[in-house]
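I would like you to sit down with the pair of lines that follows and say whether tokens and residues agree.
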Amino acid sequence: MHKKHHHKKKPSATKKWSSKLHLWFGLSVGLIVFIVSLSGTLYVFKDEIQNVLRKDAIEIKKETIKDQPLSVELLREKITLELNEKYPINSVEIPLDKSKSYSFLYYKKSKEEWNYFQGILINKQVYVNQYTGEILGVYNEKYDIFPILKSLHWSLLLKSEWGPYVVGIPVVLFIIMLITGIILWWPQNKKARKGRFWFNWKNVKTWKRKNYDLHNVLGFYASFIALLMSITGIYFTYPYVKNAFNFALSGSINLPKEKELASPDSLLQKNKAVFDLAIYETRKLYSTSSSFRMPLNGKNKKGKDLKNIPVTIYQKDGRFSDRNVLIFDKHSGKLLANRPHQKLNTAEKYSNANYDIHTGSYFGLAGKIIWFIAGLICTSLPVTGFLVWWGKRKKQGKKI
């Protein structure tokens, strides 16, 4: 009797093209994917690490705590005189926890420079005991590891406006690589499926096979979270992605525009206690929140003049998703509008939550741990993928 010859099923056209795209894109943007993945992964636990390293500046000694803090205007003047910086203080973040210090921010960037270090003119965080006025710590964020990692993740330390091109395009190609990777991973039969979910190295001795399995198995498990991280990343980068989310969630491509509120007290002399009035009202309305941020120089993040004083209230520590906004008159300190998180539409709520989803913080500490592990795997994929290609290149036609 003649033995039956079982011929391997030829790969489909979909798998053939998936293989080509996966290889071409991997070789073209693999290094950028490695840098972006590693910098993003190392950034995940920023808050936890900084809270430990800056503990003495963040936490106030119990014996210095009083019933009422000093005026924020007085604190600002004290910091300005002591540090004598060229640029004015931008904003202050105020915790609701009385045992934590106020955090004042100096920030100024130049749009003319082409790289991170020349483009950031100043980025300093100043922690102050709000009861005594003592400066507890001054941190030059410009040279801190986490802002550098953030810039590396966003634009490879180049001008931030170049992010959509130098990082955004490779991330779009990475999304295609993840999809084609899942197609290539998908087994053709039940027998092949067993070896795709976990490592079977009992009789495997070659490093090439082990490297292939690392790329194949780990890549599959990380691919779904990697897709989520990538899509939430390009949400920041490309307006049409954000518009698609807005339309899917709320039926309109645009988020509701915030109405500019005219000041009813613009003709009155400015109240010197305007910031303290805003702080008092914010504490009263959102007493269970974590902290709130308020601009002090009359300008927004883009450097444009503000017609009023917007106060952003964060409900949970380390989270940006659940936030409320209060608008105060910049002349009198009168409350003009209250925009609670609960009254936002679905697209607005998602817009606030996108950053937390991107970093994993939306899902708490467990989410950060999972995102960190997935990030490490994403960092390894360009390396293991390159080694797979190199091994095949060196021994063309031989099985792994």
Summary: The mean pLDDT is 91.
